[in-house]
Write a structure and sequence with these properties.
By secondary structure, this protein is mostly beta strands. The chain has one helix at 109-112; strands spanning 18-24, 28-33, 42-45, 49-51, 58-62, 65-68, 77-78, 84-87, 92-95, 106-107, 120-121, 132-133, 150-151, 161-162. It starts with 17 loop residues before the first strand and ends with a strand.
């Protein structure tokens, strides 16, 4: 899936096991797996360009340093109940629960991002859905409209609470 200039790491994702597809016009593109993974499994290694600015499809490695991956991980969809976790120090992806073939790889964007490229209302449908997705160190936009049934916590902006 990665171009040859990133090398030939056998842990890189391949077209036999994964595909980037259009989920719908709300969620956009996502990564589907064609094989099963058990909770805790190493799914793959990541590659991309190291950049200093926040872009769509970039993932934060550390403050001011981002991985720009327009071939694979930049298309992981968000879920408040993710099925993958990213180890950004070692550029690895692990299963946080069992994943069956034809499922999307889902991450919580707040796991890696201090500030998102663009905040958005969440439509993941998880029981613990936060309703509005931000980076872990940012407040919602002043004009953010939370979906019905959600409100901002009064003193703690780390998590949104369902009414």
């Amino acid at each position: 899936m990665y171009p040859p200039h990133y090398g030939n790491n056998p842990l890189f994702p391949n077209k036999k096991d994964f595909q980037v597809v259009l989920k719908n016009h709300v969620s956009g593109m996502g990564v589907v797996t064609y094989r099963a993974f058990a909770k805790g499994d190493l799914i793959c290694a990541l590659a991309g360009d190291i950049i200093t600015d926040i872009r769509q499809h970039s993932l934060q490695i550390e403050p001011g340093v981002h991985l720009y991956d327009i071939y694979f991980s930049g298309y992981f969809l968000h879920s408040c109940a993710p099925n993958v976790e990213l180890d950004m120090k070692n550029l690895r992806v692990y299963a946080t629960r069992d994943i069956t073939p034809e499922q999307y790889l889902l991450m919580d964007y707040a796991q890696t991002e201090d500030v998102l490229f663009k905040q958005f209302p969440c439509s993941c449908g998880a029981e613990n859905c936060r309703g509005w997705i931000t980076g872990r160190k940012e407040l919602p936009y002043a004009d953010a409209v939370l979906p019905n049934g959600f409100r901002l916590p009064e003193n703690n902006f780390d998590e949104y609470q369902s009414i």
